[in-house]
Amino acid sequence: MAISNLQELFIHGLAEMQDAEERFIKAQKQMLSKAGNDTLQAMLKEHIGQTGEQLDQIKNLASMLETSLPQATNSVAKTLVEEGEKLIEQAGDNSALRDVVIAEAVSKVEHFEIGSYQPLIAAAEQMGHRTVAQKLNGILQQEEMTAQKVVKNAPALIKQAQSSKEASA
Fold first, then answer.
1. In angstroms, rounded to a whole number, what is the distance separating the alpha carbons of residues 101 and 30?
2. I need a labelling partner for 145 at 20 to 30 A (CA). Which of 48, 85, 106, 135 fits?
3. CA dihedral defined by 118, 99, 151, 41, rounded to 10 degrees?
4. Helix/strand/coil (H, E, C) string of the chain?
């Protein structure tokens, strides 16, 4: 399907983010089952709930715009999920190392989402869809907060993985 104007590009972007959020919620649930660190588990649980809300909001945005979202595959999201799954598997039974891998995967996803929502917000504002832009900005703020939490907790997870390595050496 050709994209011939900003509105069509915007709808395509929303559809891609719907696919991305669907992929990410499944991946987060898998990560939760493999996470060993209590703080990481709590962060994943909280963000799983937020991601579900974000999916609902994206669907509501389409309704507000009186359109339906086309089926779309977000190739970047698909690759991020696949890479995360592969690295988690490669970490094997080392729980502390697996937690670092999970935190790294979450960080990559959050930064991808931040970079994806920013131009959607700008496009919504440009087209005069202020309420849509505000709702997307709320999603962006959640993604930014999650990214900050991961960055804040990463040093402790890395230290724990290093201590785990030294103990097994």
1. 13
2. 85
3. 80
4. CCCCCHHHHHHHHHHHHHHHHHHHHHHHHHHHHHCCCHHHHHHHHHHHHHHHHHHHHHHHHHHHCCCCCCCCCCHHHHHHHHHHHHHHHHHCCCHHHHHHHHHHHHHHHHHHHHHHHHHHHHHHHHCCCHHHHHHHHHHHHHHHHHHHHHHHHHHHHHHHHHHHHHHHC
pLDDT tens digits, 55-104: 999 999 999 999 999 999 999 999 999 999 999 999 999 999 999 999 99
Domain residue ranges in the chain: 6-168
N-term to C-term CA, the chain = 56
CA distance 75 to 138: 24
